[in-house]
Amino acid sequence: MFRAQVVFFMTAMLASAAEFSGDAAFAQTKKAVKFGPRPSGSPEIAKLQAYILAQLKTCKCEVSEDNFMARTPRGQVAMKNIIAKFPGKSGKAIAVTGHYDTKLFPGRKFVGASDGASSTGLLLELTHALAGEARTDDVYVIFFDGEEAVGEWSFADKLYGSRHLATTWRENGMLAKLKALINVDMIGDKQLNIKREENSRRALVDLVWKVAADLGFRANFVQESINIDDDHMPFVEMGAPAIDLIDFDYAPWHEDSDTLDKLSAQSLGIVGRVVHESVRRLEKQ
Ligand SMILES: [Zn+2]
């Protein structure tokens, strides 16, 4: 009887602190890829949205949809950011973000395994890992629509979802509560190689790189730097502390060969564990 109770207690402890699973993140990435090309406004992205929302039903979090119309070179496109909130009590907030759309390439079969699906898979598994934990800060997991340009990447044609949310958060005061925003993009590459992104808040880069070193992933979080315009930038430009984690050394970038076989569960697991632990350390600050 006593032994059974101990086993039950330990099982309950484990259940409440689920470690981020690279295998589970990979399985979610695979699901996203299976929907095919998923550009903003397409029937395929609508199916993925429904899938994400269904998955979030079990996350023990507050889910909201941030719907808006984006003015693009191809006219008005309906877009949707999906927001999962894990409430804390400090009045401060941490956000982990990434995009779930894929770039529109008419007539091609671009499924964006790393560019679009890997961030989706990581975020879905992160909601699972966060679900059993007590929170200090509000932790948001945010799926951005419309990261990709509809035509050529330009000031007005890019980052639709993050620009929309950053503006909303500036207006409603949320931005002032933000301790950190960690954006992930293209983090599935088998040869995982993440560089220090130069527009990112320096203190956040140092914190994430310290976590990576502590967890034994110094080889994947390297010391070279890179300059990337990504979903963190609308927040950076408004003065918020934000960081972009991206592996841009990826030969199939924006090619139809950006397929699942270039990815590994291990890479997703490394980034997921680093992000999860970074959130926990940020909450202690
Ligand atoms: Zn892209």
Describe the structure in your own words.
This protein has 285 residues and is of the alpha/beta class. The protein has nine helices and eight strands. Strands 1-2-4-3-5-8 form a six-stranded mixed β-sheet, sandwiched between helices. Strands 6-7 form a two-stranded parallel ribbon. Helix 2 crosses helix 9 (265-284) and helix 4 packs across helix 9. The longest helix has 20 residues, at 265-284. The model is unreliable at 6-16 (pLDDT under 50). Zinc ion is lined by residues 103, 115, 148, 254.
Descriptive keywords:
globular; single chain; Aminopeptidase; two-stranded parallel sheet; binds zinc ion; 8 strands; 285 residues; 9 helices; alpha/beta; 6-stranded mixed β-sheet
